[in-house]
Design a protein that fits this description.
The protein is an alpha+beta fold. The chain contains four helices and five strands. The chain has one domain. The chain has a five-stranded antiparallel sheet. Helix 2 runs antiparallel to helix 3. The radius of gyration is 17 Å and the shape is globular. The relative contact order is 0.17. InterPro entries: H-rev107_PLA/AT (IPR051496), LRAT_dom (IPR007053). Keywords: Acyltransferase, Hydrolase, Lipid metabolism, Membrane, Transferase, Transmembrane, Transmembrane helix. One of its GO terms (biological process) is N-acylphosphatidylethanolamine metabolic process.
Length: 138
């Protein structure tokens, strides 16, 4: 069952999580920062090859309208404003798959800490596969 999200209910600092493939094993993270002067929703994402950049909704959903989930920002209005300021301040920062990917960026904005569960899980899976491979080779 696919959940329908009403993007009109977004508040600045909320995170959108979008699948990068049909398998949904890898997710893309973007932060909603509010509407522009024309009422168009604006987002900031950290994208491979481009780094942290401001994008509009058409660009964010360029591969079709697919959302895995929306993670609301948790905090008061002042904290929300600080999160949006962090989001904007990081524009131009280069993308790095292991050290500063889209999930690192979104966590830095929402929690003030850079981390990526996807990278951690990927490293753990690689180590486990290596251990299993070594075990079977003996």
């Amino acid at each position: 069952m696919t959940k329908i999200y009403n993007l009109k209910n977004l508040k600045p600092g909320d995170r959108l999580v979008l699948p990068k493939s049909n398998l949904r094993l890898v997710q893309h993270h973007a932060i909603y920062i509010g509407n522009d002067a024309y009422g168009n929703r604006q987002y900031i994402e950290n994208y491979i090859g481009k780094g942290v950049q401001r994008v509009d909704e058409n660009y964010l959903f360029r591969d079709g309208y697919h959302l895995t989930r929306v993670e609301p920002f948790i905090g008061n209005a002042f904290q929300r404003r600080l999160a949006v300021n962090r989001a904007v301040a990081l524009i131009g920062t280069q993308y790095d798959l292991v050290n500063f990917n889209c999930e690192h960026y979104a966590n830095a904005v929402q929690y003030g800490k850079q981390f990526s569960n996807q990278v951690g899980n990927g490293i753990l899976a690689t180590v486990l596969l290596a251990v299993i491979g070594i075990g079977f080779s003996k």
